[in-house]
Records
---
Amino acid sequence: MAVKVFGLTVFYNGNSRPALEDVTVEFRKGEMVLLMGPNGAGKSTLIRAILGLVRPAAGRVEVLGTDPARDRSVRRRIAYVPQARSLNVQAPLRVRDLVEMGALLSPKRPDHDGELARRIETALESVGLLDKINARIAHLSGGQLARALLARALAQDPEIYLLDEPFESIDAASEAAVLRALRSERERGKLVLVTEHHITDFSEFDRIVFLNRRVIASGRPDEVLSNRSVTDLLLAGHR
């Protein structure tokens, strides 16, 4: 297993209500998983726990056989792709610079400039953004910025991808490019874990894990989306 979560409970800022409560779930290499749930369900908290950035009140997390909170070296084997809107687009960065950051974080760091350049170009080509390699990130559309952030993760060549709402406010062409790249990484045996609200096509995913502080359901998309507890929560979110 790439990630194992056992009985995880997390509280924030002395809040008496847990952000996560007794969560047990596993994620395998070579699968693409959609992490769903209403706002405040604990999706981002679970991602932070996998990254080793939160202290559990109970339970534990194992990532690639180790505790990510204690063994920080494992974080180089994980690529986190934040929401595009969280990036400071006013920073004087070119697309090339952004993607280079991922390559330099990699456990398989490029040995020379030629290899670094090839890795950057390959990552950008994978998301259909090679023609923007020298563009300023401030000049990218929302969809292009989402693709550039994914290219940064691809250049890192991790074993695990964690993506926070990568399809939010992006165009259809960018969504297709992102999904194509993620499918390719899954086929290479990587774990791809995506949190998302804004998605209507669930067929790309091997599994859905539906959270509402606890694991409400986990299984094939058709199984989870027909679960009564899940449908009730989804309907409540649209009222």
Note: Helices lie at 43-50, 95-105, 113-126, 142-156, 172-187, 221-225, 228-237.
---
Amino acid sequence: MAATIRGIVLAGGFGTRIRHLLPDVPKPMAPVAGRPFLEWVLMHLSRSAGIDTFLLSTGHLADRIEHHFSAHPLPGLEVQCCPETTPLGTGGGIVHCVHGDTRPPPDFWLVANGDSIVLADLQPLLAAAAAPGHAGALLALRMEDASRFGTVERAPDGTLAGFREKQPGAGLINAGVYLLRHHLIEHFPARRPLSLEHDVFPRLKTDHRIAVVECDAPFIDIGTEASFRHADTFLRENIHRLSPQP
């Protein structure tokens, strides 16, 4: 029997660096190439990983996101919002979504940031996470300039060894896409807010092996004014990768 997978998209950030451009719009809902950016993220994850059910971890202006997907559902996708009343962090948002889902749990949770997109084939990520002895997998991307993101460190066996703070030069960055076994989330620390990179993975990596899957694919985030302004061109140039074209 094929493994079951459900999606979680982290869409609760404040978007501080571009809020002056979109004062009344949650950052993941920023209009890009004719759609809210979050729609592009959901469509790519669905088509590449073959899943149709997503939970959205929402916070800042959460009602705007919920209203949009209620009024404009994406064909073939079930999208449910899980609003935070206080900031929970990336790890806390995942736990909040999982505990708020009343259905039987899936085997895996595909987790992605709602303000970035990497147009990679996710099948290698799925295979790595499902490999014996692995509790999950993280998608990584090699960049000429990793100074804005921080870098991922790999152990000799290809699993996650840690993260390095932002520094100049090339490096392997965390692409913000994870596939985690359901049971791993039960081991997340109880503190809130809870960061995946700073609180969860450093604590779990000793006893739970997380594969690092390197990809070579177009990537963009909308975390800065410059990257947000480039996002429209980026998606229009790469729309063929979102086949079938919407």
Note: The mean pLDDT is 93.
